[in-house]
Specification:
Rossmann fold; five-stranded mixed sheet; 3 domains; alpha/beta; elongated
Length: 539
Amino acid sequence: MRTPATDIWARLSGASLSHARLQVQVQASSPAAPKCGSANAEQKARNRTQAWEIGISLPKPWPWGGLYDSCWMPPSSSIPPPLGRRRRWHCGPGWRSCCGGCATPTLAWQSAMQRACQLMSGNLSPTELMLEWSQTSFCFYVASRVDKGLISELQNQNWRVLSVGNECNIDVPGVLNVQRLQELVLTLASLIKREICGSSVLVIGYIMKKSREEDFAKRGAFPIYPSKDSLIFVPLSFELPLSLQLQEVDMVLHKITDEIVKIDPNCSIDFPKGISFSAGMSEIIRFVEEHPDFCIMDPFKNIYPLLDRLQIQKILVRLQELGAEGKPKLRAPYSLKVDNFHDGELDKHLAEANLSFPLIVKPQVACGVADAHNMALVFQTEEFSNLSVPLPAVLQEYVDHGSKIFKFYVIGDKVFYAVRDSMPNARFLKSSSGGEALTFNSLKTLPVATKVQQLQTGAQDSKLLDANLVEEAAKFLKGLLGLTIFGFDVVVQEGTGDHVIVDLNYLPSFKEVPDSEAVPAFWDAVRQAYELRRGNAQG
């Protein structure tokens, strides 16, 4: 059974395990009558979900690295393990003796960690354990119900106490009341910045779909305790007034395309005209328009061109400016926009665009809608009949590339790349098509070359890639797009050696880049983006 605090717990403890900046203890208990003195209150207590409390310990002093990582809770709790690499609980109150695997401490914190393990494997109650924390930490206590005795004791030990909700309606001096659970993370971030860390810390509010947030959190990219770049990350909730939340953050990190509801493809050259966003995203857009000095990463107008494959094509065509003698040709794929698949002069238009079969057919709208990734590989004109790819569409040359694709990621001023298996050469695809267009979803059902096909073609070796040339292109695109984080795909054409950039997207997951490199680069990029935006606003 999940408690109301499960999502908050997962977010807090996930940040802890990833970055060793937080210790979190949750003591879940059966519903108990609050000390309100009424039978009605007792009945409400029996009816409501499991009560919960969270203790948060921020070690002091904090040397921005080398802190120990520990997270524990009683084994009877129904709350699932936190996000992180180790999906199991460590030792804790009521648990077996410490196995020494609670964390990997540095020498500076060895004695503190040993003391923590002794406490956890002993017979101390959760309350006694939390009181012990205050000897070496700045501590917060958050609860869904008020226990005056415990709160008084914690306050005497300099704990900051927060209550969530006001079921008991008891006014306790020094207790900060948070009306709704969704406010908790932002409230904690604001307190950490204001009362512990100071103005040098930036609170970054983020908006993205849940699965994307979880991917970033699993990698430790969203700590609630300041990162080495003095960043705290908090989710913005559409269930709460956004204007108040935006006043508490220094910058917004967004994946605006996650909040697209509908796109009119006929308005693509005039985006954002024709785009319907969620109500929450629309409110953020209005807020930014009304507060031009407010920092966002990145400006919405810089992202709109990447929603349209025709606009992407026009951007990539400019890569020819980087041509140099003795280097491979760096280019965009040959392409043609079509509004219908039954144009009597289609063959003529294909020849004018330097296109020949096979062709890959893509919707002009590049992302943000369900069918943006529904594509087809067409081997002859007749196969355009009954094609299910949405119109308008872009016809693009299919580049034989030895079944390897190079995924490049620009994260601030750093460029990374990884090699992945890709679609086989056209002759293999044609032999398996059965005389029909081959349809697929590029995110879900992309036909990847088999081992046998790779052996028969001699899969492209990464040595064939001119990484320096592509890194030069990455810097060129960064200046052209005005984006902090983006990605693009490169294939090396068999025979010619042309380096063809076939895709361009904003804020990719960069999951192929090791966490040890990607996460620090991500934090650096966020900090640099803020300083650049703030400098431009003040200039």
